[in-house]
Amino acid sequence: MNDDVQRIQQWLDERRITEVECLIPDMTGQARGKIVPRHKYDPAVGLRLPEAVLTMTVTGDYPEQDFTPVADPDMRLVPDPSTLRIVPWAKEPTAQIIHDCVHFDGTAAELAPRNVLRRILSFYEREDLQPIVAPEMEFYLVEVEPDEDIPLKPPIGRTRRTEAGMQSFSIDAVNEYDDIFDVIYDWCEAQGLQLDTLIHEMGTAQMEINLDHGEPLALADQVFLFKRTVREVAIRHRMYATFMAKPMQGQPGSAMHIHQSVIDRASGHNVFSQADGSPSPAFLHFIGGLQTYLPAAMAFFAPYINSYRRLSRYTAAPINLSWGYDNRTCGLRVPHSPPQARRVENRLAGVDVNPYLAIAASLACGYLGMRERLLPTEPLTGSAYEHPHQLPRHLDDAIDRLLACEPLAELFGEHFLRTYAAIKEAEYREYFDVISPWERRFLLLSV
């Protein structure tokens, strides 16, 4: 019995676990896998799952082309002991553990989002560098509404009223939902999810919770589990938590801002700062890479039709990739910080992203900038909203740009990019078949 297997068995035994949720994040960031009785779960063997699970669209459909190695093969699921956690809402002692997807020859399944992020991190490892990230997640609480044709509404709080107007940074507005946030914090603590601050965002019943900074794979795992936890808490309080990028008309969208820095593995020094505390060339090259390659990587930061509704002027969402010091109108913001904490905040991603792929894409763009020694524009001091759009405006344009970008294909792998593009193209086609209420209202009898 190897050390990992023994560690898992001991952990399960000590907590008298009766069931094990064996999870993998799919291409959308949803949890797939199997629930296995404890006595039948053998971490030395793992499980099997069809590899086609990694090619599913958000609707559960598949691209017309089969992108798996052979016709619908299985893959092995191998548990990662560092991800062992209690399921705090389960009635019986239940464990959850994220598994890695591998082929039967032991090689990594290249379509698995966790493996994609590992692949990007390997480029940093070759340079003896370690990226550090800190995600900020915005989401809405809304009333339960099973009819998809009815617009969403904010939920009733403890005063038995809905919020009036926007309540940015309001403590009292957050306290309207104290019962929910108490449980969120308790359940996240039980899972070892390192929550930092909680604030009320601009939108009605829109919240933001930040995670402590750390290594990218561990943070992506935490985002994956955090979303699952928040949805579960909300449902148990008779409301929904939604991570749609733009769930309600007339309200701001929801983002997942990604703070990024890079440290030298040997010294622990932040390579974005020089010895005298000034910005380093690597810092400027990283920003240059983001400005150059983020438009081509847009499909990872805005992965659905709805995602592009968020990216509009004057809504605290970027329309271009200007950068500036403590300038929230820019797509790339550099917060005030001491030299050792110098970082770049990528404000492009919606909270609807797959966290593994969004973090991977942001780090890939920054890496290319450092490798190619790209230089950014001058930092912007005014409003970026007064400058032109620089980003794809819809999903099919984003897919075209992604497929045309050879440097990103080198880092992500050609096969993965083509598979991801095919999934997004299938989702776009399915959406395009739907006739919206706007079309029926304004076109039905008027054209």
TrEMBL record:
This is Glutamine synthetase. Residues 113-447 form the GS catalytic domain. Keywords: ATP-binding, Ligase, Magnesium, Nucleotide-binding. Its cofactor is Mg(2+). It comes from Tepidimonas fonticaldi. Pfam families: Gln-synt_C. GO terms for molecular function: ATP binding; glutamine synthetase activity. InterPro entries: Gln_synt_N (IPR008147), Gln_synt_N_sf (IPR036651), Gln_synth/guanido_kin_cat_dom (IPR014746), Gln_synth_cat_dom (IPR008146), Gln_synth_gly_rich_site (IPR027303). Belongs to the glutamine synthetase family. Residues 18-106 form the GS beta-grasp domain. GO terms for biological process: glutamine biosynthetic process; polyamine catabolic process.
